[in-house]
Amino acid sequence: MLRNSAAQAAIARGAFARTATRGAMVAGSAVRGAGCGARRTRVLLVPAAAIAVLAVLGAAAPMAHAQEAWPAKPLRMIAPFPPGGTTDVLSRIVAQRLSETLGRQMVVENRPGAGGNLGNEFAARQPPDGYSIVMSSSAQLVTNPHLYKRLGFDPTGDFAPISLVGTSGQVLVVHPSVPVKTAAQLVALARAKPGRFNFGSGGRGTPAHVAGEVFQVATGTKMVHVPYKGGGLAVIDLVAGQIDMVFADMAPAVPQVRAGKLRAIAVTSETRSQALPDVPTMNEAGIKGSIPQVWWAVLAPRGTPAAIINRLNADLAQIMKGADVLERFNELGVTPLHSTPERVAELIRIETPAIGKVLKAAGIEPE
C-alpha cells in the first residue's frame, strides 16, 4: 500500500505521464496481494489519474484558444463620414483587402457627424479587442482639437495607431454657373462681391473648411462657409447648384469634373494630381499660402494588444503595395502610404501646434 500511495503522490505532482505505466503495475500488484480492499483502491486510482489529466488539458485549452483565435468573428472599420467621400471610399478599399488577409469579413460602419468627431469618439469607446478599428485623418486628429472645445476623444491618449494609409490635397471645383475658369478670375470676382459667394465643406474643421479659410486669407476675399456632414454631400449639392464651390476631396469631385458637371480651378497639393493632370496647383495659379495636406491613418482603441497591432500593420504593408490598391488610390488622387505606429503618433505631435498657427492666422476660433 505504501507503493500505491507513492504513485498517487506522483500523479498529484503532475507527473502522470511519467508514472502511468508504473502506476498501473502498482495497482495490479496491489490487487493480487491485498484482495477486495485493493480492488477498491484500484477503482479509485484510475479516475483520479483521469481527472488530473483532464484538468491539465482543460486549463491549457482556453489559453491556447485565447492566444490563437483572433480573429474569430467579423471585424469592422469605422468611417467617421457618410458614404461617398474619400474617407468612406478608402475605408472600403482597405477593409476589403484586410478581409482577405485576415480570413474574416471586415464591414464598414459609417458614423458621421461633427466633422468626424462622432465617429472617432465612438471608435475610441469600443473594446480594445482588435475587432473595431477606425479610418481617421489629420483633420480629426490634428485640426479638430483647435476647432472644438469638446472633442469627445483624445487624439493621443485614446488610440493605438496602426499605420498611415494615404495623403492628398484637395481640388477647388466650382459650379458651371460661376463665370470663372481660373483662380485669378475667381479671386477678382470674389473681391468685387464680398460675401456674395459661398463654399461648402464636409464640416467644420475638415480639410475643405481649412482650405477655404486659408484661401480667403491668402487672397483677401470674403466668402460664406456652408458646412455639411460629409464632403460627398457638399459635392452633391454643388452639382445641383445649391452652393458655388467646394475645396473637395478627389474621390467625389473627379468623376463630376470628368463628366463636365463641375469645373476644376486648381489643386492644393504641391504637385499636380495624377487624377487631374491638366489642372494647375494653387502655386502655379498664383495663389500663395500654405494649405495643409490631409493624411489618413488606421487606428485602434487604446489598449489593443500589441500582437494585433503588429499583425494589422504587417498586413497593411502588403496591402498598400498591391497594384490594384495603387491604381484605385491614384484614381482618387490619393498617394498610398504605409508607416510604423510610431510615425502616426509623431505626426500628430508635430502637426497639431503647426496647424494651430495656420488656423489662428485665418481667424478661426474653437467653438
Kindly provide the name of the CATH class of the largest domain: Alpha Beta
Radius of gyration: 31 Å
Oligomer: single chain
**Number of alpha- plus pi-helical segments:** 13
Strand content: 15-25%
The low-confidence runs, each spanning 5 or more residues with pLDDT under 50, are 1-46, 49-66
Mean pLDDT: 84
Give the number of DSSP strands: 11
Observed structural traits:
single chain; about 375 residues; alpha/beta; D-Maltodextrin-Binding Protein, domain 2; 3 domains; six-stranded mixed sheet; five-stranded mixed sheet; about 50% helix
Describe the structure.
This protein is α/β, with parallel strands linked by helices and 367 residues long. The protein folds into three domains: 2-68; 75-167 and 296-361, Bordetella uptake gene, domain 1 (D-Maltodextrin-Binding Protein, domain 2), CATH 3.40.190; 171-267, Periplasmic binding protein-like II (D-Maltodextrin-Binding Protein, domain 2, 3-Layer(aba) Sandwich), CATH 3.40.190. The chain contains 13 helices and eleven strands. The strands form two sheets. The protein has a six-stranded mixed β-sheet, with helices on both faces. A five-stranded mixed β-sheet has the order 7-6-8-5-9. Helix 1 packs antiparallel against helix 2 and helix 9 (231-239) runs parallel beside helix 10. The radius of gyration is 31 Å and the shape is globular. It starts with a helix and ends in a 6-residue tail after the last helix. Mean pLDDT is 84; it is low at 1-46 and 49-66.
